[in-house]
Amino acid sequence: MNTRIDTLSTAGPDSGRRAPQPVGAPDHAPAGRARLVGRDAELAQLRTFVRDASASGAARVVRGAAGSGKSELLEAVVALGTEAGMSVLRCSGVRGSVPSDLSGLLQMLWPLLGDAHLASGSGQLRALETLLVDGAPGRRDRDRLPFTVLKVLESVSAVRPLLVAVDDWDALDPPSADVLTFVARRTDGHPLGLLMTSRTHPAPPLSPAGLPVLSLGPMTPAEAAALLAARRPGHDPQAVRDLMARAAGNPLALLELPAHTDDPLPHLPASSDRLASALAPGAARLPAATRDLLLVAALHPTADIALLLSATSRMRGRGALDFSAVEPAERQRLVVFDGMRMDFSHPAVAGAVAHGTGGRHCRRAHAALAAELTRDSVRQLWHLSQSVQGPDPQLAARLEDVHRSALRQNEPAMALSLLRRAAGLYSAPRDQGRCLLRAAQLAHGAGWARTARSLARRALCHPLGPLGSLYAETLTQFDGDGSARPADPARWPRPVGAAEVDSALELAHLVAPLVTDDRERADALLAYLDALPSDVARDPRLLHAMASAAPVRRAATVLARLADRGPDIVAITDLERLGEAALRAGAPLESLELHRQAERLCLFHDLPDRLPSAVLRQGLAHLVTGDWGQAETAFRRSREEADERALGADRAAAEILERLTCALRTGTVPEPADTAALAAGRVSVSALDEIVAVGTGWAQVESGDVAAGHAALSRLLADPARCTPALFALVVFAEAAAAVNEPGAARTRLLTLEQDLGPERAPLVAVELAVGQAILAADDEASTLYERAFHMDLAHRPFLEASLRLAHGRWLRRRHEFTDSRVTLRQAAATFAMMGAEARVSRITEELRASGQRTDSFAAASSRPAPAAGLLSAQELRIARLAGRGLSNRQIGQELGLSPRTIGAYLYRIFPRLGVTARAQLSGVLRSADGDAEA
Predict the structure, then answer these.
(1) Which residues contact 746 (CB under 8 A, 6 or more apart)?
(2) Comparing 293 with 101, which gets the higher pLDDT?
(3) Are 206 and 170 in contact (CB under 8 A)?
(4) Is 833 left (phi over 0), alpha (psi -120 to 50) or beta?
(5) Quick check: helix, strand or coil at residue 934?
(6) Per-residue pLDDT band at 719 (split at 50, 70, 90)
(7) Phi-psi region for residue 85, left (φ > 0), alpha (ψ -120 to 50) or beta?
(8) Nearest to 248 by CA among 167, 350, 337
């Protein structure tokens, strides 16, 4: 027989046969359920199946792709049936062979044949034994076989409910499969359950028609992450994301695919024996030309069919291949071919079809691909490097040079592979060390912490410069939890040469977050950065390090260099670093634009795992500007994107910040964040604790608990170096101090901050200081301070302008200038309503009532959406229409005689008023508004 026979407990010492006993109990039922992670919905349906089968009969087919977990679910159901008191009979098909007729039935019925305890079915059992064991060829017996098997199973189930578990039904011999399908359709009225697993087949004849089917799709990202955490713990977050992307929701691939370590030489997509036998069981029997074509496609999966056929023909050294070479692989459902592209049916199939290929044959395939690709392109040089053996310093130098192109194309993994291979091709130890060190830097920046530490240790075995050695030593001790104590920047050596300057920048970027709380070490780092060559003054790593070490004290320098950075930044990582630097320096609008650029590049390069982080940081920029409506929307988007991709750190941070922003907007106090959620979110947003502390104090003020909010903000502002976000809450601190009648102490605090921060302070903080001092002003100097505050740059800071107008309106009302007070308060209310500050709008309603104005019409007007013409001025409407037509800021400015920066400022105000987050949404919103206006 070509099927596997499971041994069951014996019926008696003399029977010589196996009786149907509850199987899977002590030795493999608990383990089966313990292994099952995810699939909760499917398991719930199968629990219902077991109950129905025990009571009145049921049949079910579990269908899914290879490796989708069908057998694991079958084992779990066997355990459930055993617990329910059912007997179990089992059989399974074996792929890759041609089983003999009726071997599947013999496997299933073997425990029953000759069983003296089944007297009621003894006649049928003898007939089955004659047919299945002795091989009697009688046609009449064959015709009656399905009915005989059904009668026997009904007799067994009359004694005890019976579960028949059939694994890989579609791999059984056809007569056995037909009989089991016949029985499955006739289980009603008997305590008999028949559960069959089958792979997904496009052809209906290969499926048991007419039976209820439970389809297994890919695991969700959350389920995949849970499976990896349970069965393969300890991986870096980036390694987990990489495994999930390569496995594409297939449980077997998640468990079998190796994590990225050192690249094999020559490169082959990762796989395993078990994975290859499951995903490509017939690959070895394909024609040689088809196997070679699949190998070439596995090495270069993004190529079109013409390039693959040409490279395969070159590799074989024979006549040109045509499309007929694809057909055998298509018939086995290994690939999907649309006439232009040949894609593998699952990402892991690429490794499965190439698994076990010899090194020589693989090098020939790489060489053929290199000969077909554009000379000196990233992919051409990489394939060429995989086709050579032994040192080749010239090729190594080309690889080292082209890795920068891979970075510009936002392919850090490819850049890392190029540097690793270059280190292997160089013969000089110094060259090898340089490449390994640069690879360690890239790995750290991409989130592969373990790989980065391993490469840094390898680099230390080679000659490195003083700064290169210092960076590698620091990286080997760095685990990202802030516990590392790097060398004092005051003792760092000065860089000599481009490689050492690069090491200095990487070291500064690595160390800067660790010295923020140490003023002396932070100042030493800033002095070191100032002494670096001028040609790296605008390097994203330098600006990010400067903004991290002294977020506000060096704001003017950071922002000046950001404004003069040039348009050649195309790497997502660099945009993210610049965006964070801008936000830390108090320029949220610049940060918002940089992170929007990063989001667009993520979409363009199909990098969905980086989207949640880009959107999350857009939310932080909105939060700093006071645009709470847009901030809450961005945090919600980030949470949903992270949830969809099981990115736990981004999801935790986005959820915490979404709740916090909602509390600010509605004037409520958020519930304290869960400790575990804070720890997870801190991985994504390092300053999350400080943001939550400031936001909670602010929310207390908005909710009316002004005393508690004032006390919390006062504590945070006592040492702003340890809580930089508190510097962006100076206005609400001033409002709270005025409300609790402590303006004197608050004025002193603001003056002290103004002196400590010096002239390099962030422009946003400078405006906050001016507005806060106006709010706290005594009557004899209020007019002067309000005038000074209104002359600050408020055009791009609507929340601060509205807060200033709110305080000014109150001051006017106290002076009995009620008409001017009402105008000022209405202006503040309109801005706060636009930015989603509902609690503040309610507060202004009370102010307006106190000034003698009826507020019913104002409240009604603020509660219903207005058409675009009512929300925008004529100029704003004109700019919105031009942007909706796809014109850039520069093109709009040329048409209207305005600068691109002014157009950007207009659009920043237009977006929240219309409730959009992208230019592409403008045309639809304006068309809808025009239609409503015409109606």
Answers:
(1) 733, 734, 737, 738, 772, 776
(2) 293
(3) yes
(4) alpha
(5) helix
(6) confident
(7) left
(8) 350
Q: Closest Cα partner for 100 from 235, 236, 1?
A: 1
The 3 state secondary structure assigned to 661-726 is HHHHHHCCCCCCCCHHHHHHHHHHCCCHHHHHHHHHHHHHHHHCCHHHHHHHHHHHHCCHHHCHHH
**DSSP string covering 276-345, please?**
HHHH-TTGGGS-HHHHHHHHHHHHSTTS-HHHHHHHHHHHHTSSPP-GGGTHHHHHTTSEEE-SS-EEES
710, 742 in Cβ contact below 8 A? yes
Tokens of 182: 């016949």
One-letter identity of residue 731: V
DSSP line for 96-163: TS-PPTTHHHHHHHTTTTT-TT-GGGHHHHHHHHHHHTS----HHHHHHHHHHHHHHHHHHHHHS-EE
CB 731 within 8 A of CB 797: no
State CA 833 to chain mean position distance: 34
Burial (CB count <10 Å: 0-12, 13-18, 19+), residue 745: exposed
Q: Which two tokens stand for residue 467?
A: 């700064």
Closest CA to 641 of 674, 619, 663: 619
Report long-range pairs for 590-593 (Cβ below 8 Å, ≥24 apart): 590/559, 590/562, 591/617, 591/620, 591/621, 591/624, 592/618, 592/621, 592/622, 592/625, 593/904
Instruction: Please list, in sequence order, all residues whose beta carbon lies within 8 angstroms of the beta carbon of residue 796, skipping any fewer than 6 positions away.
Output: 589, 905, 908
SS3 11: coil
Pairing type for strands 162-167 and 192-199 reads parallel
3-state DSSP helix/strand/coil percent for the chain, to nearest 5?
Answer: 65, 5, 30
If residue 873 lies in a helix (H) or strand (E), which one and from where to where? none
Sign for the CA dihedral angle at 401, 404, 406, 409 comes to negative
Q: In a 3-state reduction of DSSP, which class is residue 907? A: helix
CA distances in angstroms from 254 to 219, 232, 270, 348, 381, listed in the order given: 10, 9, 12, 10, 31
Confidence of residue 2 (pLDDT cuts 50, 70, 90): very low
What DSSP designation does 391 have?
A: -
Can you give the C-alpha Rg of the chain in angstroms?
35
> Could you tell me the two tokens for 231?
């069965």
**How far is Cα 893 from Cα 551, in angstroms, rounded to an integer?**
33
Tens digits of residue pLDDT in 149-176: 998 899 899 989 999 999 999 889 988 9
Of 271, 320, 894, 237, the closest CA to residue 609 belongs to: 237
Least confident among 225-234, 351-360, 773-782, 906-915: 906-915
Q: How confident is the model at residue 27 (pLDDT cuts 50, 70, 90)?
A: very low
User: What is the distance between the alpha carbons of residues 70 and 78, in angstroms, rounded to a whole number?
Assistant: 12
> Are the CB atoms for 456 and 475 separated by under 8 Å?
yes
- Strands (DSSP E) along 150-241, which ranges? 162-167, 192-199, 213-216
CA distance linking residue 710 with residue 721, whole number of Å: 19
Of 640, 700, 635, 688, nearest in space to 664 by CA:
700
* Main-chain dihedrals φ then ψ at residue 91, nearest 5 degrees: -155, 165
Cβ contact 736:710 at 8 Å: yes
What the block records as the tokens of 92 is: 């399974």
Q: Which among 689, 613, 610, 680 is positioned nearest to 648, based on CA atoms? A: 680
Q: How far is CA 24 from the centre of its chain?
A: 38
Residues forming beta bridges with residue 166, ordered by sequence position = 91, 196
3-state SS class at 46: helix
Which of helix, strand or coil describes residue 561? helix
pTM of the model: 0.77
Q: 841: helix, coil or strand?
A: helix
Residue 25: DSSP 8-state? T
Note the pLDDT of residue 74: 94
For residue 253, give Cα distances in angstroms to 72, 212, 246, 348, 362: 14, 27, 8, 7, 23
